[in-house]
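Dear colleague,

As promised, here are the two records you asked about, laid out in our usual form so they can be pasted straight into your sheet.

NAME FIELD: protein one
SEQUENCE, THEN STRUCTURE:
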Amino acid sequence: MTKHALKIFVLIVAVVVLARLPGLFGKGPGPSLVIAPGYRVVTWAKKLGQPRLMVATATRDLIVSTYRDGTVLLLKKDADGDGVSDGKQVLLSGLNMPHGLVLEKDTLYLAEEHRVSQYHFDGNSLTKRKTILANIPEDGGHNSRTLKRGPDGWFYLSIGSSCNVCIEEHPWRASIIRFKIGTKSQVYAKGLRNTVGFDWHPVTDALYGVNAGSDLLGDDIPPEEMNLIEQGKHYGWPYVHSTKFKDPRYGPKTPKTLTFTPPVHSFTAHSTPLSIRFLKSKLLPTALVGRHGSWNRSEKSGYDVVKLIWQPDGTISQSPFLTGFVKDDNAIGRPVDVLQVPDGSIFISDDEAGVIYKVQAIK
């Protein structure tokens, strides 16, 4: 090949690579992201509005709730091998803050702010809606509802507080409830201001949840929590925060008979952990936590995905997994959910950039 021909070839390759960058990185942080050693990350789907929670279908598509957009999307798998989703379609629209998703064979369970419904899913559409839980409180704030099926067969639903800090009137507020279809629901645990993310330990079946604490108490108070959530336990809110810092208003009003359960791990204050997912691992139990980021802290915290490892001595270590969502002190991405699919790939939703990232181990 002559030098002139080589230059033309290099130019063509450069043009092709540059043309592919929008498809790989889209609107989001893309090239600024820093992934833990041994992994690579690409933007798998973009222009999704505000994607939140995800489930994988039997055909390797993703169903995604977009929460504030009021829609549920179907994102097609990467069948052509170009590294990105082959397209999207709207499955449902006009919903009331759709969030929690559970997919079991041809049935999708969907949690909106005020109800939980089931749908028939044929691989391309959702039909035959039926309400399975109604009358969920929808006054005030914290209107996302995370729904999961526990290893015990019960559905678990997190319902955040209606306020920053207050005494709730509705018993379901600031709690996780559980229910079976056709039976009366029950409050499982209380004192959880906003436990959006929860998951079960793959070995012990213990339930862990990450909790976003109260605002306006200072930059470093209270630390965000990860709790080992057990039936009948109370985790402090609104009387104490992280079961260590008494609330200036409600601390003195703590019922004398109330016992609080302390967190098993803490995160930087106001970093807003919104998800926890245990990974398939042959080593020590490992989970990823998506931290959405602070909104009123003088120095930003969160805006990342961190890895937690349950050590043999019972401690839990924390290390960065995916960072780079803050540039020049501006948030250009906000991680939400984490989902690992059967082939080991990890999907991460970002409701600020409107994208979903795909993380794979480097072989």
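NAME FIELD: protein two
SEQUENCE, THEN STRUCTURE:
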Amino acid sequence: MKQDSNAKYWIWLSQALGYNTPKVKGLCELYKDISVFFKGGEEEWKLSGLLSISDIRKLRTTDLTEAENILKKCAKLGYSVVSIDDTDYPDCLFNIYAPPAVLYVDGTMPDVDHILSVGIVGTRTASNYGLKNSYQFGYALSKYGIITVSGGALGVDCAAHRGTLAANGATICVLGCGINSNYLKENAGMRKAIAKCGAVISEYPPDTPAKPYHFPTRNRLIAALSQGVLIIESGKSSGSLITADFALDQGKELFALLGNNSPNNEGSNERIKEGTATPVTDFMDIVLAFRGRYFKEEKPPIEIAAQAEIEDIPVKHGKRTRKRLKGFKKTEPSYSIDDVLEKEPEPEKPKHQTNVQLTGDESKVYQCLSAEPVHIDTIVRETHLPIFRVLGALTQLEMKGLTVSSQGRKYSLK
């Protein structure tokens, strides 16, 4: 648990001026020691040039005792308090328009300034397709050492956090209420698990109840802590689109899972059609988008999560899915009707030789390729490998200079 000596002054400021005002950042840049600002009184506050008459009146009528009591509460609960001028405060958070004066943290903040982090957001009323993909993206990205960020809500958020936990990865849960709030009691166990391998954070002090207007402003923090944001499922009025807009405003990468024409996908599909979100179908689409920036060394294909069990995932308003979702599960590939119909046998493909050392998966995939581009679905059918292992092998082959990718998810020998 960590609390710096100036934390009480930053809490006092946020209690007086609000939790998402750019004036906090301005004061941080103006004063190396915020206690000087506090102790200078009204004369100093006026001289700062950043505050209105109304702001100064609010500062005058806000008692420092309230901030001291909040710190005592945090100490009792074991929460850290990271102030905006603290060396542990993330740079990516400080650089946004209105960073919070303090972060309340249960657990340990991962190093989001130097390790790739991806926000996973979407509807609380996710379909089974959305839940499964949220879980699998959380799991697979974590296996590549990527930090996941989400909001701890029912549906997509919860599934993404649980996928990360199943992979023993690091995840950040950004709440729109105090960390100890009774909001979503059914997720309390998940939040405790997150605090052991990542962090549950909030800009709101302990005991702050969840209020509707907290969540849109909370979403700016999810975007700030992520280098890229993935929308799993999002209706036209979903709050996850607010996160998407924050991500675009902050210059972050935006991705959206390809979905059908259901209302759950109207918002995310619209982002794809207008060109602001890159369409994805699996986690490797995101990994490859950041290759060269974060992935400079070859990484081995991730292993299958053999029957990884997770708790039932809440879908909406406390209801839970009855069927337990699995992690990446060994299954026989599904075939289209064209594979069942009789047709002329294809001529046997010549076997290719290479002096480069290949793993088992890489060798299987390599033997399926030729000078002509081959679609990913064909490779999956011929190798009888799960798609994420095929994509992992293709990535390794491309890094070794043996293959090239082309539009339409096709691959060929170099």
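A couple of things worth noting about protein two: The chain has three domains: 7-77, 117-320, 337-413. The two ends are 54 Å apart (CA to CA).

Best,
R.
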